[in-house]
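Review form for a predicted model. The reviewer records the input and the model, then writes brief findings.
Reviewer: anonymous (R2)
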Amino acid sequence: MAFKQLTAVLLSHDKLNSARPLDFLSVAALAYLALPNFIFFLGWLRWPFAVFFSLLVASSILVAIDWRRMVWQLPYRAPVLLMIVATAFGWSAFGGAGHFAAATIDWTVRDAVLGDLVHGSWPVSYAEREGVHYILRSAIGYFLPAAVLAKALGIQLADLALYLWTGLGTALFLLSLPLPRQSGWRLPLLLVLVVMFSGMDVLGVLAYQGDWPEFPGRLEWWTQFSYSSLSAQLFWAPNHVLPIWLASSLFYRHWHHPAFPPFALVLVSLLPIWTPFALPGLAPFLVLAALQFHLSGTRHLPLLPLLSTTLVIALMARFLTLNIGNIPTTSSIHQTHNSNGFLLSYLSFTLLEFGALALALSLRLRHSYGILWTAASMLALLPFVVFGPSNDLLLRASVPSLIMLMILTLTVFQSCSGVSTDKKKPWLIVLILTIGACSPLYELGRAASVRRWLPDYAQTLIDQQGGAFPPHYVGRLDRADMRLLLRDPAIVTGREPRLASDLEK
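Model under review:
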């Protein structure tokens, strides 16, 4: 009985928004995520394997979706659709894609990657040492559609193409959220909530620095950990967060619908070419969906999507883990000399970044307890592991949980604004979100006030890194199976990188 009660609580769901049938938006988002995979197969694999994997994934998509029961009608009327899409493209314009505003410093690397994909033959290699190529291998899916267009029409269109691709992905994400379907004051208010969603970084800055933060500095690294606002995620790392945003919102929309399991199989197989951090971040939520599928007594999973997902993830795991041992991994406790200092930093971080909001949500929610607890647990555990030069695991694997908290917040605001009988205003959540809005306001202010700069596609990634081979982007092609699967690498033209001490590390 206790187990049944526990599973009932864990699997409680948003009956209005979490059991939706697959529809046009679902397929559009899946197509958006799938396109870079097909480009990768055809551009990076030898032709027999390219044809095999392309047909395998395409066939699995056809099998995983019950096309006869598809809902092809858009859930939004034209004025609502226009406002959401305009918000997406306007929000994206403040980021680095398109360089309409001041891009973040990380865009010097992203521009170099895009330039290498346009100018170089695939797979892109930066050097050959002792018969082993050093190839570009990580987080490239985001750039591939723009790179294909720029290869065909000219490098001058690369930045615009990447902006349009970014805006499209952001629009699909916003459209898949539980937003009002009719015009009115609630829609722009909730869109602002999404754009401004963040932890209360400004309180951490005040507590640790004692002064109001100088504009337009970045607020989110006030301690050794950081969970980025949605705006910072979009401005600093769209190549990582866009696929995670879409996968997370699709999960929330469909995870209690009987048609979701085979769709989810295909969905997760499409994510690794975009970012290696999507699956670790989504894994706890997928466990919830697997439990729901097991207890629902529905039909078995179709074999083809299961086979396709297994083979594609195996391929990408071998590709993405080339030379992965060179990426630093440790425990954040070991990086802190004072255990009391670590504990104080950890407790203040968890309280301000998500703890206060999660507690406030728990007092208001009448559904999705498993999602709330899973998100809070994941966010509480991630600070203990450090992986990557800027703790990329913390920054990226946290995104699904942050998106779930944001979606649950949207449902709370909808429930108190006419969608249900709950009229009590969530003032505590309003206060938390208002304080948190300082972080995205600083990001937007920096993008608008600092002088913008144009992308430089003349430098290769290695040139931009001063001759070093960053292990989180470049891997040694020293595996026999990957040499068999991949085309012969071609060294990208540009200044010959100097021999750096970390080249052979």
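Findings: The beta strands are 124-129, 132-136, 329-331, 385-387, 474-476, 490-491.
Further findings: Residues 115 and 457 are 5 Å apart (CA to CA).
Recommendation: see findings above.
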